[in-house]
Amino acid sequence: MKEQKRFRWSGFSYTTRLTVMFALIAAMTALVAMGVVSFVWEEHFKTYTTENMNTLAETTARRIGQSYAKTESLDDPATISPAVQASEMTSGVAVRVVDAQNQTVYDSSAVVEEVLGGRRWYQSLEPLDPSRVATAPIISEGKTVGSVRIWVYGSETLMRQPDQVFRQNSYQAMLIAALVAILLASCIGFLFARGLVRPINRMSKTATAITEGDLSARTGLRGEDEISRLGETFDEMAEAVEKDRELERRLTTDVAHELRTPLMAIQATVEAMIDGVYEPDEERLNTVNSEVQRLGRLVDALLKLSRLENRSTPMKEEKVNVGQLIAGIVATHEMFVADSGLTLNYHADDDVFVLGDPDMIRQATANLISNAVRYTKEGGRIDVTVGKGDLMASIAVKDTGIGLSPEEAKMVFSRFWRADAGRNRDVGGLGVGLAVVKEIVDRHGGWVKVEGEKGKGACFTIYLPLYAEEKPGWPAVGLGRNGQKPQKSQKPPKKPRR
């Protein structure tokens, strides 16, 4: 037996569900409105028809009373003529006039019941329920001489046939209005759902295209509403994924290239020595050793960068005097800078403290100085400056080297990236030093600012949150490893986008 399909609301499309919801809301609103209106309508309409009958009874009784003052008899046809006129002019209404002894004088509803001894006996159709009868006394000269009783045939609420037709037509009109409202709500809901789902479908198709390998697919949504902003964010994410994938491919290529060159040099040298082309002398062995050391440095740098990115390297949190720390680094690099034919200048503000790992900060600064030496020609100058701002400490390394263009400034922290003039492996480094700098600074809750001009030098500035001793009632200014941001009212310079 085939399994019967169960009704599942989630099985319908979003457009269908939203259309049905609009229709149900309209139907519910119409039903509630009809219920409230019907209740109020019935109560007020009953009161209205009852008042009409009471007014008719009072008017008829008053006219009969005026006639009675002239004839002094209810049996006179001229006296009860107002009752006859009321019954004839008002369709569906019965009028009965009785005297003070409750004897019937006139009854428009009376029918002959039987004839006995030549005398006719009449039976009145007046309802037994007094609430279905409008009664008014006949008063003449201050004396009640009888009463007028009026009721409506076949109605328990003194409602005439035209009134009943009007009420029925009113309910039909409300029902038609409800159906029209449901239809319009369904159409509006369908159009609204189509407009709402269209950008979602575009994002879904774009996501499918990206999944299938088309990383250039974009939604192209623009606007101020939430879905448009979601589309823009999705496009930014897709662009970041495309860049990361491109970076991954380039990284694979660069790693293979970086490893292939020294390996080929080692292989060629060793094979030449095995074949007897080269003697295994000290010079050849030093060549092999230098390439092996280069491979070791490259692998060590990649491992260090990977540990920084994965947060597997423990980070110490110490109060660090940045001026003293960088002074030691400058001192150890003076001979290296001088041997390169460059001038090294150093300046530091007093009492610049941060909370962080001194070894990591030392490594980041050393990488920047080595990078400046590598890309600065002989006779140039390198300036190292430690500054203290309101919230941030700064470590700036400025050189007069080959400089950077704005496009290159966005790429300097990518792995294996080198400036065009420094791609020679004899001059350029491993290509991961600046990536290590950025990861170290990120772990300290800071950032690196890059400035430069082609042919005029570059300046790399590390910003780290200042440290201050906590005092009662005063929060610490320094920020630890969590990278807590300062208040908006004291916002530091903007972090440059990569």
From TrEMBL:
**Tree of life domain:** Bacteria
Q: What class of enzyme is it?
A: transferase
Q: Main location per UniProt?
A: membrane
EC id? 2.7.13.3
User: What residues does the Histidine kinase domain cover?
Assistant: 254-468
Record localization: Cell membrane
Report the SMART domains cross-referenced here: HAMP, HATPase_c, HisKA
Q: Where is the HAMP domain?
A: 194-246
- Record flagged with keyword Transport: no
Q: Where are the transmembrane segments?
A: 20-41, 171-193
Q: Name the chemical reaction catalysed here.
A: ATP + protein L-histidine = ADP + protein N-phospho-L-histidine
> What molecular functions are annotated in GO for this chain?
phosphorelay sensor kinase activity
For this protein, the record's Gene3D superfamilies field holds: 1.10.287.130, 6.10.340.10, Histidine kinase-like ATPase, C-terminal domain
Q: Does the keyword Transmembrane helix apply?
A: yes
Per the UniProt entry, the signal peptide is: none
The alphabetical list of record keywords is: Kinase, Membrane, Phosphoprotein, Transferase, Transmembrane, Transmembrane helix, Two-component regulatory system
Name of this protein: histidine kinase
Species assigned in the record: Parvibacter caecicola
Q: What is the lineage of its organism?
A: Bacteria, Bacillati, Actinomycetota, Coriobacteriia, Coriobacteriales
